[in-house]
Prior knowledge:
Elements: E1 4-9, H1 17-31, E2 35-40, H2 55-58, H3 66-75, E3 79-85, H4 93-101, E4 114-120, H5 130-140, E5 147-154, H6 167-177
Parallel strand pairs: 1-2, 1-3, 3-4, 4-5
Flavin mononucleotide binds next to helix 1.
Amino acid sequence: MSKQILVISTSPRKGGNSDMLAEELIRGAREAGNDVEKVTLYDKTIGFCKGCLICQSTQRCVIHDDADTIAQKMLNADVLVFATPIYYYGMSGQMKTMLDRANPLYSADYRFRDIYLLTAAAEEDEHTPDGAVTGLQGWIDCFEKARLAGTVFAGGVTSVGEIQGHPALKQAYEMGKQM
Ligand SMILES: Cc1cc2nc3c(=O)[nH]c(=O)nc-3n(C[C@H](O)[C@H](O)[C@H](O)COP(=O)(O)O)c2cc1C
């Protein structure tokens, strides 16, 4: 059955390594007949969560910027995919800010179930993305009906385009195909 998949590419670098992983996942997911929408954060205006918690009674953020719009897209997607560079052994600040700004969904009738994470980093050690995985898992734990369904990590890539030919690209494509 065709799924509505929302891919949120959070790197501030246009066409960066994690974004290439997102593109490969999208290629696989579309080939498998899914309806995929991609959102990039580098070109969006996204303010920090104010912590007012008004969203818990209104299911809407008091800040009317791009994060508010993206959170509404998240609400209606079956599958969420986050792509992020590893910054100081964690997710990008852009991704963390977006997760905080998705707080209106906490008390809403969200549709998403499966959530995937794509990461890219300069280091090759397989544990490099652990902080990002733990951070996203902490968010997912607050959404009882959702689960972390899969991760792909591209290690040893620093500059834009360095990911070319990396085996993680195929893994991302295959992950997209089996969604
Ligand atoms: C602020 C900053 C922090 C970074 N921290 C790490 C890190 O902790 N570990 C690592 O392996 N690479 C680190 N990197 C390198 C990036 O993860 C790497 O360049 C990655 O390919 C960027 O992905 P992107 O092209 O999708 O933005 C850092 C880069 C920046 C700009």
